[in-house]
Design goal:
By secondary structure, this protein is mainly α. It has a domain of 63 residues. It has 3 helices and 2 strands. It has a two-stranded antiparallel ribbon with strand order 1-2. The longest helix has 17 residues.
């Protein structure tokens, strides 16, 4: 399909925006934990040489190791979540006598 095509509502266009290197590395981190495989995935997404991407993947992995999230609470304690759903019935045509 071409970049522009005509519809009954007028000319339509598709914006083609390739991912940035950071976005490609983030996607690769979500797929695998291995740094070499992350570099290969990001390089294939970007169409860049593997050597250039490997250094950026190592930098990104160091940054991600520093950021950790901790849920405060007693260790080993179970947390309970209660979800309540309140059903309200509305009668559109209430003909009670």
């Amino acid at each position: 399909m071409s970049e522009d095509w005509n519809t009954k509502y007028g000319t339509r266009r598709v914006k083609r925006d390739p991912p940035t290197l950071e976005e490609a590395i983030f996607a690769a981190m979500g797929i695998t934990e291995d740094l070499d495989q992350q570099a290969e995935i990001a390089a294939s997404l970007m169409g860049m040489p593997l050597e250039d991407v490997q250094s950026e993947v190592k930098k990104a992995s160091r940054i991600s190791l520093r950021t950790t999230r901790v849920i405060a609470g007693e260790p080993g304690a179970q947390r309970s979540i209660v979800v309540e759903r309140r059903v309200t019935r509305k009668f559109g045509n209430d003909k009670r006598i």
